[in-house]
Design brief:
heterodimer, A: 401 residues, alpha+beta, 2 domains, six-stranded mixed β-barrel, two-stranded antiparallel ribbon, B: 225 residues, alpha/beta, Rossmann fold, six-stranded mixed β-sheet, four-stranded antiparallel β-sheet, 10 strands, 28% strand
Chain lengths: 401, 225
Amino acid sequence: MEFSETVRLALGSLKSNKLRSFLTMLGIIIGVASVILLVSIGSGLKQYITQQFEELGSNLIMVMPGKIQFSDEGGREGGPPGVATNKLTLRIANKIQQESEYVKTALPIVTKSLVAKYGNNSHPTGIIASTEQYTVVRSSEVSEGRDITKAEVASAKRVTIIGPTLKEKLFADSNPVGKKISLADQKYTIIGVFKEKGATMGQDMDDMAFISITAASKQFNIEKLNYIYVESTSADDTVKTATEVKKILLKEMDEEDFTIMDSKDLLSSISSILSVLTIALGGIAGISLLVGGIGIMNIMLVSVTERTKEIGLRKAVGARETDISSQFLIEAVVLSLAGGLIGIILGFIGSLILGHFLKTAVTLWSVLLAFGVSAAVGILFGFAPAAKAAKLDPIEALHYE
Amino acid sequence: MKKPVIIKLSRVKKYFPLDGVTVKALNDISLEIHQQELISIIGPSGSGKSTLMNLIGCLDKPTKGRLIINNKAAENMNTDELARLRNKDIGFVFQSFNLLPRLTALDNVELPLIYAGVDRKRRKNIAREKLTAVGLTDRLHHFPNQLSGGQQQRVAIARALVNNPKIILADEPTGNLDSKSGDEIVKILQDLHRKGKTIIVVSHDPDFAKISQRIIKLKDGKIIN
């Protein structure tokens, strides 16, 4: 008997029992849809976090004061970073910049919380102090006014670029460029406004004022850096760069009183955690696929019993055991594949709807997996009923009432 | 001159285990049936008629003895070979018609051709031809429940004929029919016999007794005439 004939036969008997076929498929539909939906949430989360990291820059290395040990036994040693033991200075940042060929830029960063005032408006915010390289390295753009110049940094000029949140708090809709604001009682002239960046890791990146690092040390007497951003010449060289930076720092300090964090390392460990999470979500949804498969087996077994007489007759007129078993097997596979297809479509639509509230990403592998699993479920759970049908004794089957 | 033997049973025994006891359904039966014979098998219930029919129809295998159908030794065949033999060499007609309710008359008649591997177009043609031969040209696309008993049995006969088997086995073919429809079926079978088929009928219908060349009486698993 030809394969196409068997498929036609299976489709015919499924069509003659539409409601039951649909209800049987429902288990698979729900299973596949939930696999796709949950995996899309997991993948969306992973994409979101990866993207956030890439915005930070994948070729970035962060040098922080104090020693943070990520070892198994020690836990965290040496007290909180940047308090008593902070040995990072502008001089060290310049050394890193000059002495390593892998370093493109070493960006000294100072942050400080203070209150910004303009007229009667005041707003608690923070300053970020760095060099003219800041906008390049942090890929910030100045949307109104202009960026700070090298000369302004060198001469510790009292100029500032403010974030859009701070602008809104102090100036509402009016143009702040050229106005003077006071940052903790020091007057600064606004030369520009940053383009909106949104939140990264839950922190509003737009609620800040940028001043030059020289101004920070002159007007606020800040000598210690909160951290140094080191940008390597290429993303492939971050490991080499980190090693070089460590060497330079060790030359400057008598002990290892700093922490170097490579964004690649961090990203890969976070993304592996998220992969496990995604697989776990998919696995939970996979259980409902299993339940759907058992539903198919159940109905197919009932169907074999109901159609005992038909099976007997088919055998009497010349159907071989394989003809009978493939008929029932294909019915089960058609049920689960059709359920799988509908489930994929529903899962896709579901993740599109959910995409309005949180980031989702339907991945090819989850679709292929769901489809493959539903086909496998059909074969696996169709097998027992098909074998039962094939083994029926034609004489008994013919006399079955 | 006698035609060649088409069905031969030598010393056939068929035993069934039942509640720990062995039931001897057929006890040492030897029988030769020639081509183009029309034979009736009669006997009280439990005499072994059905078992004999099942053996000749290759739905079952003898416990002991030899069974030759159309020059093929059926007692040694596996299930696939038996299926092929049923498909090619034997046509079945049942008391309760055994048509598939979800298939049209045409589709029902096609069934044996599907398992014979005949392509779709040829199948339709042969099935239509056979249904025409039993006078159902205008009922091709009717479902069994839209047909009378006599019509259903004629569809079943058409189905038995599609693979041009040499042997037709009919088990109480008129048992579920009124006398007028029954007469029609008897006539069709008689006609097939004239055209060269070997026909074996299990029936107590006197009409069959009249047209049969030989009547085999069974009792307690043995032939008594």
